Amino acid sequence: MIRVDRVALRGLKARGHHGVFAHEREEGQTFIVDLVMSLDTRSAAADDDLTKTVHYGVVAEEVVAVVEGEPVDLIETLAERIAQTCLKHEPVQEVEVVVHKPDAPITVPFDDVTITITRSRV
After folding, report:
1. Distance between CA atoms of 32 and 23, rounded to whole angstroms?
2. How far is CA 86 from CA 23, 25, 83, in A?
3. Confidence (pTM)
4. How many angstroms separate the CA atoms of 30 and 43, rounded?
5. What residues act catalytically?
């Protein structure tokens, strides 16, 4: 089995209007996204060629656009949309997405709420 390399983006922040409550949709809140994309970077490294790897700057902009885009009820749905956006990049074989919702409407003290999913081309 060939081990793959990983490109990670951590702490992407964007304001979204996701949630099941009206105030979440109206006021919005900050979401934080962590990504780990699995791909083979050997060819890119050998040729020092950006076109043979994933452009993490472009991915970051696309992920922020998803978070700032069409509202959904569940962070599970948001995470799925983010994963599919990452997998549109040809070199990316698998992606782990963590969506943080630190301002979730919970009535007891807490630090964070997250969903973690892993999706692959297979």
Report:
1. 19
2. 29, 25, 5
3. 0.94
4. 37
5. 101
